[in-house]
Amino acid sequence: MSNLKFKLFFVFLAVGFIFIALDIDIKTDLNYPHPYDNSDSVIGEFQYYNIASNYGAKCSYKFIDTSSSADDTENQNIPSATKKTSGLTQTKVIDEVFFDNIHIDIFNDLIGFLLIIVACIGFKKVNKVFSFGIFSAFCGLILHIILTSLPFFFNGLFLCNISMVLGIAYLGSIILTTFFFSKGLFSMCADVCCRDERKWGKTAWFISVVLQILLTFIFWIGSDFGALKSLGYVIEGILVFDIIMFWLILKRVYIYLERSYIESASRRK
User: Fold this and answer.
1) Can you name the residues that pair with 25 across neighbouring β-strands?
2) Residue 156 banded pLDDT, cuts 50, 70, 90
3) Beta-strand (E) ranges in the chain?
4) How far apart are CA 6 and CA 192, in angstroms?
5) How far apart are CA 148 and CA 34, in angstroms?
């Protein structure tokens, strides 16, 4: 029975890690209850990046004059985002931001955090560090619910600011959660013969953290840059590969992890 429980908790952690690390959104036919309230206090790009990366958004563009009569003779190479008409250089910027239809993540973080919480509850009798994993996963669960619900209660610049702050905290909860359960798993295979697996497992975890932070930034900026968004999908593929490698490394010491769990369960009887 202990053997079956261990396998179940091990799978829960593996699946939960994938769910909280990956975001693949699909657009539904549902709309937010109100249109986005554009603010004149900050540039449209800031509003668009935050709303698009968190909730999905569309936008319109306008051209603004960015030249003086002196600049016209100096600037010969004009980027694709600018145009020159009647002796004036105009730059294309975001004008209005609009909510897109509600997006749903098919790798829902809510499920991922719930699986990790259940697994950490099962493993906490082996090492107390899993208790910290329960707490950070629970915080991530609450932050996910709050972030998803914000557009139904707030709007405009306040929504942009609060979603950005909570989004950073949410990323922190994901990193901490994976750190705590990874540390707990490595402590369960403390044997000298598992030294290389611990080393490479920690390396794979660190790479996953770097990739998740990089992806967050790329998809934030990439809301208005298709090339960056395409790069983000490539990095997301690398992240999937890294997570798979992380669990394959742990699979090499599976027997030691299982033995540690069974011994801990027998001591509590």
Assistant:
1) 105
2) confident
3) 25-27, 57-65, 82-85, 88-99, 103-105
4) 22
5) 15
pLDDT at residue 80 in the model: 44
**Residue that the structure tokens 């699986």 belong to:** 115
Could you give the C-alpha distances from 178 to 117, 121, 135, in angstroms and in order?
A: 11, 15, 12
Provide the edge-to-edge strand list for the sheet that holds 82-85.
57-65, 88-99, 82-85
Indicate the pTM of the whole model: 0.84
Interval 48-100: pLDDT, tens: 888 888 888 888 887 777 665 444 444 444 444 555 555 567 777 787 888 88
* Tokens matching residue 41: 């206090």
Q: Angle of helix 226-252 relative to helix 2-21, nearest 10 degrees? A: 160
Phi-psi region of 156 (alpha: psi -120 to 50; beta: other; left: phi over 0): left
- Residue recorded with tokens 């960056």: 228
Q: Which two tokens stand for residue 252?
A: 């090499």
CB atoms within 10 A of CB 55: 21
Q: How far apart are CA 86 and CA 240, in angstroms?
A: 51
Which of 103, 114, 102 lies closest to 20, judged by CA?
Answer: 114
What is the number of other CB atoms lying within 10 angstroms of the CB of residue 269?
5
What does pLDDT average to over the chain?
85
